[in-house]
Amino acid sequence: MYQYQSSVDTIAAIATATGPGGVAIVRLSGARSIDVAGKIFFARSAGVPGSWKPNVLHYGWVKAASGAVVDEALAVVMRGPHSYTAEDTVEIHTHGGPAAVRATLDLCLANGARLAEPGEFTRRAFINGRLDLAQAEAVLDMVSARTELMLRAANHQLNGDLSRELFSLRDILTTVYAGIEALLNFPEDDTEHGQLARVCRDVASVLTRIETLLSTARGGVILREGVRMVICGKPNVGKSSLLNALLKHERAIVTDVAGTTRDTLEESFNLKGLPVNLVDTAGILTPRDKVEEEAVRRSYGSIASADLVLVVLDRSMPLEEIDRSLLSDSPAGAVIILNKSDLSPAFTPVDIQMSAPGRTVVEVSAFNRDGVSRLESVLLASVLKGGSLDANGVVLTNVRHIEALRQAAAALQSSQQALNAKAPGEIISDGIKTAINRLDAITGRDIDTDALDRIFSAFCIGK
Fold first, then answer.
1. Are residues 102 and 210 in the same domain?
2. 81: cis peptide before it, omega within 30°?
3. Which tens digit of pLDDT belongs to each residue from 278-322?
4. Buried b vs exposed e over 248-286: b needs ≥16 C-beta within 10 Å?
5. What's the CA gap between 89 and 451, in Å, rounded?
6. One domain for residues 261 and 349
7. Residue 202 CB neighbour total at 10 angstroms
8. What is the mean pLDDT of the segment spanning 327-352?
9. Domain identity same for 161 and 246
10. How confident is the model at residue 185 (pLDDT cuts 50, 70, 90)?
11. pLDDT(390) > 70
12. Pair (207, 259) in one structural domain
């Protein structure tokens, strides 16, 4: 965990991904950023960076102290508070080769800047009031989004949709808290319990809205973190063909020779907006040598770590003991896939449902892709368990936010119980105050330095 340093410092970092590319960006932020840029960037015709019009790209060269040209580049000045960090900021756009961008960063550091800590640019944006904490965390979600739905959910949070809802709830609870305090100090003013009735209504209203937010949590966390699906079955049932069908490209080698897959094979794909890590395992069999013994061990290890298990059976062949063992040992939420539906069946879905009650059964032909679209819908429904992936509004994707809202809901439920029991007002107000503090923890109005360190240390350097 790093210790945050004062924003009096001017910081610098590479803001683009490592490795070769068309363009790379070195970002400076802080009171001396323009001065540092003026020592290393020389515009062709626009004078020194301190004289530039903000937000206009200038063409020139990055040069060392000796005058040697490091790179041909572009640079832009963004004056605070109208910048990402709300401080004076400079970006230097070099060619994307690692040597050029690293040399440019080294020149920044040699001329008065220090290397930024992970997430320090975004942390400064939060400290300077440019973003609240929920918005700042959405920046990380934007950077790591693997699907369009996750990107959409992150955009809603970055635009302040979640924060506005939380601020609205906070305003109501603050009024409730003040009302309870007034009752405690001036009980004679509560004519016919009018104030108490309003407190009950408002607490119930806020609790309902928090529960509505929490109802999005399962789908939101899945959007953010993805799921791990594991394909298992005995050799030659079509596991690798199924992997290729779901990936929509030929990733795994497919032959009619049993045991072609000798180790786990993992690939990522987008399942209707859901990021999935899909694992193809070696066939489950009675091992004949140490290699097969290790392959089977790894297959069972993958099954144990799966969020969703896909048991594949060859529908054209009678069930064997290994098939029955996989069916009986499979988790309750497993999806049973009857592959090779293009061939004559040796058993029916009803037979499987009798052997493995409660499991979802789907018939497909991985070879000609029949039934794969329906399988995708079944897999999505199995993961969401009745939830949805609707990212058109506020979606809770952050575990920290979810836990804080659960604590706020629990505190409000305690206040409700105290109200119904006509408990002393201090007990009622304690729950309201706790709920307010939990909402403030999400937006950053009530957060300690250690918590901030943990949050921003998850960011990359340069963001």
1. no
2. yes
3. 998 888 877 777 877 887 888 888 888 889 999 999 999 999 988
4. eeebbebeeeeebbeebbebebbbebbbbebbbbbbbbe
5. 26
6. yes
7. 16
8. 89
9. no
10. low
11. no
12. no
> pLDDT digit string (tens) for 213-255?
998 898 888 888 889 999 999 888 988 889 988 988 665 444 4
Structure tokens at 5: 């340093």
What is the Cβ-side half-sphere exposure of residue 39, based on CA atoms within 13 angstroms? 16
* Domain, as residue range, for 22: 11-131
Of 333, 351, 384, the one marking the end of a domain is 384
Pull the structure tokens for residue 411.
């505190």
Name the residue type at position 150.
M
Same domain, 234 and 370: yes
Count of CA atoms in the C-beta half-sphere (13 A) of 279: 24
Residue 149 token pair: 């739905």
Q: Is residue 370 part of a domain?
A: yes
Residues 439 and 370 in one domain: no
CATH of the domain at 258: 3.40.50.300
**Residue for token pair 């993958």:** 302
Other CB atoms within 10 A of residue 8 CB: 8
Q: How confident is the model at residue 272 (pLDDT cuts 50, 70, 90)?
A: confident
Distances, alpha carbon 163 to alpha carbons 138, 443, 445, in Å: 11, 7, 11
State residue 3's pLDDT score.
47
How far apart are the C-alpha atoms of 58 and 56, rounded to whole Å? 6
